[in-house]
Amino acid sequence: MVRVFIGFHGTSKASADMILLDKRFLPSNREDEWLGKGIYFFEDDPDQAIDWCVRARKYKEWAILKTIIEAQEVLDLTRKREWDMFLSIIKQLQGKMKQTKYKGKRLLNGVAINFICQQFPYEVVRAVFLVPGRSYPYDITNIPPVQIQICVKEERCIKSIEQWRCSNGGF
Amino acid sequence: MDFKEVVEQINQYLAQVTIEQFERDLQRAGIEQCPDIGEEADSEWQPERLIVEYSVFEEPYSDLTNGYIAIANGEAA
User: Fold this and answer.
1) Which of A63, A137, B7, B23 is the most buried (most CB within 10 A)?
2) DSSP code per residue over A103-140
3) Residue B67 pLDDT > 50, yes or no?
4) B58 lies in which domain range?
């Protein structure tokens, strides 16, 4: 079954111009990325992408790109069954790591996902995170601020790219 | 793809793989950039910095006001 997602990617205006010109994204290769190597989007929520540009990256000039993503092989960690199994894999990897020279290392999510994707051809990984750097009145509500992130592993899944908004107010 | 199949295949892999090969596969996945155990992540924008405390009493779904999730960034109780 093909699943379709609308993803918003925040970046500097200069990078956005390059992406629009080349009609392709450059995947992140940092190993400490939240969901491993790939191209990152906030699902259905451009304001999260703006927040990322302004608060996290502190870009003076930024742009938000809107994309349509289609994928068949999705590792969806918002689903209970997949999350439970993901946890089971992490525990097993951690157990085996104790026998290696990496026994002192903390296994980050992104590395565990890279490992899984080495074994299986997932095209997209999807997960929910609490919004970083924001506290909330948990004595008033138990609903935390969250964001859904999508990491596209296979560039062919990105079907369209357009500029959604930029820092000077343009579209 | 059935995620259960993925787990089974990884179980099988872990049962059979040599330590040397496992270390190479971990390296390919980026293990060397992971912090050491006990080390802090270097940015508040890393999910590892979000210390999540989920406190529930007997039945998590019976009374949701008993549950809270706090981002323990110094402000959480």
Assistant:
1) A63
2) TTB---HHHHHHHHHHHS--SEEEEEEEPTT----TTT
3) no
4) 42-77
